[in-house]
């Protein structure tokens, strides 16, 4: 079922926690709400679940407005951050709670409970007490409890944040597998960009109660619209530049005394708008970004830099390089070749085709 | 948490504490039970009194069962209403419902007599009755009023740490508010509710004063026991009765302990979260706020009439205003009030400190018999005060601190007899309330990072420094909480000490009780009022002392 969020505003007394949110979650899609803590992502999730009162705006499930519907009346299941499994009930009792509420007969309940236990791979755990389970198992029970009521929408509130790294990776694959299999429209809150990219069809990046960008997962990384999104999605190098000339399809710049051209289809920026802007205004508004994998070492180049720092990370090696007191990061794939050392002076080549202009954020 | 091996110094403290607990808790209790069960003239004695015991027990249950149900229910309702429902005057009512704590429970009986007594305002003036309304129902009403506060205090702590996610999960799964309350909210409050119910039950079972004042001919076992000693001087019978009074109390204690072990919920502390209900039907709101306000209203009436009674010439006959009662107390003898204060301060400081200290040792150090020591230290919670008093009486009347007659049966000189000294009153109160500091300490330790001590050690601080600079400051609120509870308890307790007091160290509660038993309303009310006032003033002073930095800061800012 599709969710539409229309001009949603939410306030905690005077603090505006959600500022004019517009978002559409398509049928069967998993969308990740990504952002730092305090950005309003959990509040948005709670608003969808009906667990907090919104100030204004609308939430629609399909074509039905649910903005002011009690949480009990929405067919939206939430997987809580700390699972919120009822401590006084067994695994099976937790799972069948929602069914009991719906007055499903005992036999039917049992069948359904066993079904979902199988889906989350916890067959035979029904009689266990909650505190006897590991974190990963509790996570599965929470998922099972949400799935069993056959919700129209599934919400996840940082469901993996209490698990260790390895388990997180396994569990997110599993959540994705189950979500795809059942085709449930889902909203997934996380502050981990890797998790978001791995699990979501689309990512909505949030900051200070505002959605900055909604785009398919890969695009959020390769085509960020502003510095915040770019930084949140991965390592960025912001380069100093001088604007030389604005043309229809190309911007001519000077970077580290080198004249370069950046094409317009590499970024969001429509250069037609930029033509009228004068140079200082342009540099104030837009920053030049290049991802570390788009810079390489080369024997003959116009630019040379000094290696300041080396991080050996196994499959990749991260270098911090400085050119004229400006530091930036290069990521090199480890092919077993020679590893550069701190202090090495080396030629550097930028792949200007991959450079992007981003809106600066104050 | 991994417990460390104790250093010698800690071990010595632990051994001393353990010995003293054994000595002043375990031995007297066991002694009184042995005395009661295996009396020389056993068969004869039992036959003589069995009927009376059964009747007393039956009467005890007639009161304590409804009181437990009423007070616990009120405790739940008031906790929810005062912490989770927003309404006008909430803070005021929160304060009002705590008032019964600073008063001996039976003092409220003044108000009862003034309203429903033979010449009571309602029975006599309004309804023109001259029958005596004294009996079980009055006792039930007064005990419920007094003990609801205790239930509220304990249950509200569970309300304050409630995890809203459980409720939200339930709502999210489609459960109605009512279903959510009964299947999620209430069960997670169960541990505190059972503790409250147990303490209310024990409080009702061991209250001998209220029935003696307003129970008329109706006498539960605790009151009968008191009468046996003070009226008939029949120690044997009192001891046997004491054992029978102990049985249901101990059973309640054990059931609660067993239950709480089965229901350990690994709850997280959620302080600071807004726990108020977001939406509530008008019916629910009216019911909750209405019944809580009614409860507060009764409390207010109770205190209102104590105040009125203290300033009325002769209730029922002459309603003119007078300062006579107050003047006569202040003018004649204030020593009992002074004694009460001295006792309460001494006891609450020592007992709270030792309790918290033991909690620290038991939770942080690998010591032998930890669980058993904890059990014995908590045992006085299950023993009605009056029985503990008798236990001290039968144990410490012998020389060498009570055990002399076992070790040296023939000894005739009487060195070190505790009974008849002033100090025994302090000792019994300290060990009776030891468990308060202990539990309070546990509660704070559970919310403490288990690695704090290691962190301090790791930074180079020794155990003594760690205790003084890290552990003690963290446990200070535990001490403060225990202090307040122990102070009010000691100020208002009578059962445990009534047989141990001498004419020279009489305490105020004793005076109030004696005056009230003779139905002298004016004097009783005035004394009750004065006692409450002193308790309140002392607690305020204590708070000022504890928070002097905050207050200083606040004053500074106010002047700016």
Task: Give an overview of the whole structure.
Chain A has about 350 residues and is of the alpha+beta class. Helices cover about 25% and strands about 35% of the residues of chain A. Chain A has ten helices and 21 strands. Chain A has a six-stranded mixed β-sheet, with helices on both faces. Chain A has a five-stranded antiparallel β-sheet with strand order 16-20-17-18-19, with no helix packed on it. A four-stranded antiparallel β-sheet of chain A has the order 2-1-4-5, with helices on one face. In chain A, α2 (about 90-100) packs across α3 (about 105-120) and α2 runs parallel beside α4 (about 135-145). Chain A is elongated and about 75 Å long. The two termini of chain A are about 40 Å apart. Chain B has about 550 residues and is mainly α. Chain B folds into two domains: about 1-30 and about 335-520, MetI-like fold (Orthogonal Bundle), CATH 1.10.3720.10; about 40-265 and about 285-315, MetI-like (MetI-like fold), CATH 1.10.3720. Chain B is about 70% helix and about 0% strand. Chain B has helices at about 10-35, 40-85, 90-95, 110-115, 120-125, 135-160, 165-170, 175-205, 210-215, 220-230, 235-260, 280-310, 325-330, 335-365, 370-380, 385-395, 405, 425-430, 435-445, 450-460, 465-490, 510-515, 520-545, 550-560, and strands at about 310-315, 320. The longest helix of chain B has about 45 residues, at about 40-85. Chain B starts with 7 loop residues before the first helix and ends with a helix. The relative contact order of chain B is 0.13. Classes of the chains: A alpha+beta (about 350), B mainly alpha (about 550). Chains A and B meet through β6 and α2 of A and α7 and α8 of B.
């Amino acid at each position: 079922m599709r969710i539409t969020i229309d001009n949603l505003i939410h306030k905690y007394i005077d603090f505006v926690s959600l500022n004019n949110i517009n978002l559409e979650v398509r049928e069967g899609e998993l969308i990740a709400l990504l952002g730092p803590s305090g950005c309003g992502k959990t509040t948005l999730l709670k608003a969808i679940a009906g667990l907090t009162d919104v100030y204004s705006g609308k939430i629609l499930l399909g074509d039905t407005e649910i903005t002011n519907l009690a949480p009990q009346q929405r067919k939206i299941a939430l997987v809580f951050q700390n699972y919120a499994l009822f401590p006084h009930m067994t695994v099976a009792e937790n799972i069948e709670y929602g069914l009991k509420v719906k007055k499903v007969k005992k036999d039917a309940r049992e069948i359904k409970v066993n079904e979902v236990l199988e889906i989350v791979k916890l067959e035979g755990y029904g009689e266990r007490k909650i505190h006897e389970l590991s974190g990963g198992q509790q996570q599965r029970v929470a998922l099972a409890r949400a799935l069993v009521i056959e919700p129209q929408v599934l919400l996840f509130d940082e469901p993996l944040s209490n698990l260790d790294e390895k388990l997180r990776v396994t569990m997110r694959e599993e959540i994705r597998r189950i979500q795809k299999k059942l085709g449930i429209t889902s909203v997934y809150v996380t502050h981990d960009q890797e998790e978001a990219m791995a699990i979501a069809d689309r990512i909505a990046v949030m900051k200070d109660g505002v959605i900055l960008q909604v785009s398919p997962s890969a695009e959020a990384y390769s085509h960020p619209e502003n510095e915040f999104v770019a930084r949140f999605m991965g390592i960025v190098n912001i380069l100093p530049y001088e604007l030389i000339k604005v043309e229809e399809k190309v911007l001519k710049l000077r970077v580290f005394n080198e004249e370069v051209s950046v094409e317009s289809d590499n970024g969001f920026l429509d250069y037609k708008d930029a033509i009228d802007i004068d140079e200082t205004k342009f540099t104030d508004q837009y920053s030049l970004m290049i991802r570390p994998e788009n810079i390489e070492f080369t024997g003959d180049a116009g630019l040379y830099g000094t290696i300041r720092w080396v991080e050996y990370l196994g499959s990749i090696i991260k270098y911090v390089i400085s050119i004229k007191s400006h530091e930036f990061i290069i990521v090199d794939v480890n092919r077993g070749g020679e590893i550069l050392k701190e202090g090495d002076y080396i030629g550097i080549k930028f792949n200007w085709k991959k450079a992007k202009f981003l809106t600066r954020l104050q | 948490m991994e417990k460390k091996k104790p250093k010698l110094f800690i071990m010595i403290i632990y051994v001393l504490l353990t010995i003293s607990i054994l000595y002043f808790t375990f031995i007297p209790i066991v002694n009184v039970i042995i005395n009661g069960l295996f009396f020389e003239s056993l068969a004869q004695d039992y036959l003589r009194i069995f009927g009376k015991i059964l009747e007393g027990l039956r009467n005890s249950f007639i009161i304590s069962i409804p009181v437990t149900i009423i007070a616990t229910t009120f405790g739940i309702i008031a906790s929810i209403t005062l912490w989770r429902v927003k309404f006008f005057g909430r803070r005021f009512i929160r304060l009002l419902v705590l008032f019964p704590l600073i008063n001996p429970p039976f003092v409220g009986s003044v108000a009862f007599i003034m309203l429903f007594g033979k010449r009571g305002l309602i029975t006599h003036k309004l309804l023109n009755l001259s029958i005596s309304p004294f009996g079980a129902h009055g006792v039930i009403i007064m005990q419920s009023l007094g003990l609801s506060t205790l239930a509220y205090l304990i249950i509200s702590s569970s309300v304050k740490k409630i995890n809203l996610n459980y409720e939200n999960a339930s709502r999210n799964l489609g459960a109605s508010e009512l279903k959510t309350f009964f299947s999620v909210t209430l069960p997670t409050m169960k541990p505190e509710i059972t503790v409250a119910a147990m303490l209310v039950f024990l409080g009702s079972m061991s209250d001998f004063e209220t029935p003696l004042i307003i129970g008329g001919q109706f006498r539960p076992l605790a009151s009968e026991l008191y009468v046996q000693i003070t009226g008939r001087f029949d120690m044997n019978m009192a001891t046997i009765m004491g054992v029978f009074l102990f049985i249901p109390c101990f059973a309640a204690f054990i059931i609660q302990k067993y239950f709480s072990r089965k229901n350990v919920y690994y709850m997280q502390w959620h302080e600071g979260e807004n726990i108020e209900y977001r939406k509530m039907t008008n019916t629910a709101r009216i019911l909750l706020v209405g019944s809580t306000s009614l409860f507060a209203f009764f409390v207010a009436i109770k205190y209102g009439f104590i105040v009125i009674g203290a300033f009325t010439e002769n209730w029922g006959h002459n309603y003119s205003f007078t300062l006579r009662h107050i003047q006569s107390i202040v003018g004649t003898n204030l020593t009992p009030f002074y004694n009460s204060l001295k006792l309460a301060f001494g006891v609450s400081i020592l007992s709270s400190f030792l309790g918290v200290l033991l909690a620290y040792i038991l939770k942080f150090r690998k010591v032998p018999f930890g669980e058993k020591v904890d059990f014995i230290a908590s045992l006085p919670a299950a023993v009605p005060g009056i029985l503990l008093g008798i236990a001290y009486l039968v144990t410490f009347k012998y020389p060498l601190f009570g055990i002399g007659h076992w070790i040296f049966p023939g000894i005739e000189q009487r060195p070190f007899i505790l009974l008849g000294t002033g100090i025994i009153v302090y000792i019994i109160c300290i060990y009776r309330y030891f468990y308060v500091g202990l539990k309070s300490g546990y509660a704070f330790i559970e919310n403490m990072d288990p690695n704090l001590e290691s962190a301090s050690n790791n930074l180079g601080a020794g155990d003594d420094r760690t205790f003084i600079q890290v552990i003690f400051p963290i446990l200070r609120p535990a001490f403060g909480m225990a202090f307040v509870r122990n102070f009010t308890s000691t100020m208002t307790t009578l059962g445990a000490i009534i047989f141990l007091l001498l004419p020279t160290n009489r305490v105020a509660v004793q005076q109030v009780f004696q005056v009230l038993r003779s139905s002298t309303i004016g004097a009783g009310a005035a004394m009750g009022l004065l006692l409450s006032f002193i308790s309140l003033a002392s607690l305020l002073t204590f708070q000022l002392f504890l928070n002097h930095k905050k207050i200083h800061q606040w004053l500074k800012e106010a002047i700016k």
